[in-house]
Every structure is written in C-alpha cells, then in structure tokens.
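seq/struct pair 1
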Amino acid sequence: MSAAPMETVTTDGVERIVLGRGRHRLGAWRAAPATGRPRSVLVAIHGRAMSPGYFAGPVAPHTSLLALATSLGHTVLAVERPGYGLSRSSLPLGLPLADQARLLRQTLADYAELHPVGAGFFLLGHSDGGKTAMYLAGEPWGEAPAERLLGLDLNGCGRHYSPAAAHFPDTLGGGAGRLNWGPLRLYPGGTFHAGRALLRDVPAAEEADTALWPARFPGIAARVCCPVRLTFGEYEGWWRLDRDELASVADCFTRIRRPAVERVPEAGHNLSLGLAAPRYHLCALAFLEECLTTAPATVR
C-alpha cells in the first residue's frame, strides 16, 4: 500500500504533516527528538473547538508540551481530530467519538509502518479529546512496540457535567469562557488574543455525543487496559469534582490499577495554555516514564 504524502512545513522544529491513507486523512503537528530515534510517540489529542497548536505554547515557549517532550526523547504527534482541520472537507459533520477513535487507531498503525515509535504510543487527551482518547485506549492494541499502548493521561475530562455546564455552552460563541478559563491570572499575558486563532467549529456529530457521555463513561472506562492518570485544574468548571464523584470516576476503570487523580492548584480547564502548564506537562511525562519502566522490551 502506498503511504499518504507527507507534505511538511517546518517551523521551530515542528512539522505540519498528513497522517493516514485513503479518503479521510488527518492533519497533525509533529515534533521529534534531535536524534530522530524516539523513546516513544506521545499522541496529544485536542479538546472541543480546539486545534493542535494548543499543545505548542502559543504565547510562552516554556509552556509547550511539544518542546518539553522532545527534549526528553519522545516524538509528539498533536493530531487534528476527525472533522477538524484537514479532514473537515471529507467529514463536514465530523464523526461520533467512537468512530473518531477507530479512524485514529488505523492512522497510528499506518504511521508506525513508516516511522520509528520507540517503545510504543502514549495518549494524552484534553477535555473532549480525552473522551476520544478513552475510546482509543479501548481499541485493539498489541504487544509489539509498533502496536503497543503504553498509557493514557487525561486532563479536564470527567464523567458528570457540572451544573454550570449542563446546557453545554458554545465555546466559539463566548458562552463557555468561565468554564474554559477560570481566573485570568492563571494565564500568560496575550493568551486570550492568541487563543482565538486556535478555535475551530465543533463538528455536528461530535456535538450530538456530548449529552450522552455521562451514561457511556463506565462502559468506555471498563475497556481500558493500560495505566491511566487523571488531572483537573483547581478552577475546573466543566465537571463535577467532589470527592465522591472523583472516587466513582476512578472506580469505573475496572480492568486496571485504580488511576491516580491529581488537582493542579492555580490552574483552569485549559491546563496546557496556563502558567501551570509546565507542572502539568512534567507530571504527565513522569507518568510516561513510569509506563516505560513496566513495558516489555522498552527503549529507554
């Protein structure tokens, strides 16, 4: 089979690439370690109405997940979810979250045929991207490095919506500002101006899944077989986060060791855009290191 054309534009070590084969190809931002031989591939999955630049430190370079992860020897693929960016023309309505995951799984398999992946793949999902990442973690994976799922790091992704989020306000329309951001002091100057360039329309098929998530969560979580970590900012607004709720969320992952749950002080929903981003990213990458130590025949 022929590979998708990999037309790239390199800026500050980040390439814009095309992933997959066939009709529904996906755009992605890729950053690779200087050696070209990654220890693993971190797949960063953006949230609702967002784009891959969310993970690239658009205002403050030290907040970039791409820069930090590559400095530690990992390749980062910040993917456009199906229905966003490049795939919008072939998927104008997008795809339901489960179908997004199936397309992403095949896309990553195609990627592994053409590129080194080190010890395997590690998923990091933000908000609605965390929902897709949970479905993706429940897809079939193998034991060989090119087919291996090392772990799943979720941030800003819970089960039951908070009362303030129950009507699912529109991000592009400005109705979700308080839920997405929290206090303005949590972000570097210029974040909100730069953040407007990151926003995208929410595909209709994805939007239709939103209200169904709380009921589907236990079944999706029960299919996850890799280590999991959950993170929420102190000022998270989208989700219920009382003690009983967090315990119930962790208990839904029945096939694995109970996930750790962290609350990051002085942080809002958009963790990777805030001043707390370096702390969160370092913790996520420390979790990746733990996953590498337990993976067989890892590349360290």
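seq/struct pair 2
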Amino acid sequence: MRTHRIAAIGGDGIGPEVIAAGLQALEVCAERDGGFRLDIKAFDWGSDYYRRHGVMMPADGADQLRVFDAIYFGAVGAPD
C-alpha cells in the first residue's frame, strides 16, 4: 500500500482549523479508497513560532520538508 507523507503547516488565524478539517477529509478518502494511507506530520510554523523564535521556521526547515511528498499549508500572517 502506498503511503503519502504530508507536512501540515496550519499557520495562523483560521489556517489551523481549515487544515485540520482538510486532513480529516483526506483521512476519510484514504479509508474509503483503501489503496493508500497518509503519514502526516504537523509543524507549528507561523506567527506564534516567529514571536517565540524570531524566525518563521528553523534554519533547517526547508531540509525537514524535503522528505515529504506534499506540504499542506494554511494561512500565515498576523495583523500585528
């Protein structure tokens, strides 16, 4: 069975909620299809991460993402 590795970055505002709902839908698709599964890893990279660390993601963030088949990305940006 094929496994699709997905990096999920919810981001800010409504982004995390939208990403969570989308991931639920993807899981249902995988279950109903039966021919693939998902390996999802969530990253907390967004404005809150930036406030804590002074950067949007760690220095090796792009390298961390390269191992995934897809990146499911929400909204990033805070009014402040």
